[in-house]
Amino acid sequence: MKRKLNTTLGFYSPSFLRMHVGTNLSLVNLNAINDDFTESVYLHEYIHFIQDLTTSYGLSNICITVDYLKFVNNYLIKQPKGNFVVPVLPIPNAPDNVHANLEFSKIYNGSGDNDEVVLTGHQKLNTTVTTNSHTQTVPYIQVDYKTNSGHIGDFEFGALCIVENMAFIIESECYANCEPSPDLPYKSAEKLVELIFPAFGSDRLNVLALCDASLKTFHPGPFFYDTLINIRDNKIPITKPEDVYDYCNKTVINFNGISDFNSLLDKMRIDAIAQINGYFNDPQFQPIKQWLEKMINSAVDYRLANDTFPLEIARQGKFSTNKALANFLSKVGTPLITNDIPETTLFDPHIGATTPNYSTIWAIDQIHSVLWGWQRNCDLLDFCKLSGVKTDARCTVEPWERHLETTCAFGQMWRHWGLTGYKPQ
């Protein structure tokens, strides 16, 4: 997945359950915001949280991310302590298939940089990924376009386009005055529908439904494309957006003996929880493990009982009237949410006797970024200052050196994973 799913107004960190809303308004009480701009951005990013936890695509990304971090950890602790080069790259054709899974993920995600475009063509093509045992053919969807300035190009229509257009449809249906977004990637699915089967897109909630249903798969782009063409060519009657879900749910899959989407989602829930639990091997982390497990379970249970609930969110408008959004939020909670004040908030409906250190998952996100060579600082600096955690110059240049600081979430995880004495260069 992309490092961050973002508009220019906020972002969501896939697999790490954190979102940011670019506002100076408090987000502690959603009912007190009363600002369409802030609410619309919050909603857009929260939809990415829903996609992360209630779809097989989102949960599979969590598994891929954990596998990468496990690979790096196991690789480093076998090396002499000291400096190591970042990014730490997985080994091609290795038995763990970490490299292959990241290659699959790149293809599944596709591309689509911010731009205003006119789509001019489309085709289904194939590429290959080599695993530890064979070379596998992988389809992808190439879409041609031209810009207003006359530039001609193409992009791969995949999960990135689908998750962003789904979030934008819900945001703009609930807030008609939301900030405009560029065609790529935020309107790419709607524009592809307009090119291939305009009648289907006459109700944009049909496009929302197909985006959401496509995330039931690991490879959403070809599923979206093939399903759209099948509905058109076979004249499948679609009288309401729910019909799109019904048609997609008839798909027979073949994954490790699993043949239907609900069973796949249930398996991915189990796998994701098991993978996340692998981050933590000390009783002190039990509260954070329980929080993550309860959140994932409640999210998947909600999806299995309310398959089409994103449609209801799109239909019910602003926060003040959106019972579908409020219902999901009350059952599942929120990710860790930051704003520009800076303020950090989170709602946990499952909190027990011991409050988890919610910032731990954010710290893991920071370690992940350091290991990929994307940054050397820790972004928790402002949060720690406001939380009373002692900070110093190391936070901005070498946070791994804080491994002896018991209140430092970054240092705590670095030490817990046995990385004391290892220094990224």
Descriptive notes:
By secondary structure, the protein is of the alpha+beta class. 47% of the residues lie in helices and 13% in strands. It contains 17 helices and ten strands. A hairpin with a 4-residue loop joins β5 (117-130) and β6 (135-147). α1 crosses α4.
- Quickly give the structural class: alpha+beta
The percent range for strand residues is 5-15%
If strands are numbered along the chain, what order do they take across the biggest sheet?
1-2-3-8-9
Contiguous low-pLDDT stretches (5 residues minimum) are none
Q: Would you tell me the overall average pLDDT?
A: 96
Shape assignment: globular
> Given the structure, what is the number of helices?
17
How many individual β-strands?
10
Helix content: 40-55%
Please name the defining characteristics of this protein:
425 residues; five-stranded mixed beta sheet; three-stranded antiparallel beta sheet; globular; alpha+beta
Short characterization:
It contains 17 helices and ten strands. A hairpin with a 4-residue loop joins strand 2 and strand 3.
Write the layout of secondary structure elements.
Blueprint: E1 5-7, E2 10-13, E3 18-21, H1 36-54, H2 56-76, E4 82-84, H3 98-109, E5 117-130, E6 135-147, E7 152-157, H4 159-174, H5 183-186, H6 188-196, H7 204-214, H8 220-233, H9 241-248, H10 261-277, H11 286-305, H12 309-315, H13 323-332, E8 336-338, E9 344-345, H14 359-371, H15 381-387, H16 394-397, H17 409-416, E10 422-424
Parallel strand pairs: 3-8, 4-10
Antiparallel strand pairs: 1-2, 2-3, 5-6, 6-7, 8-9
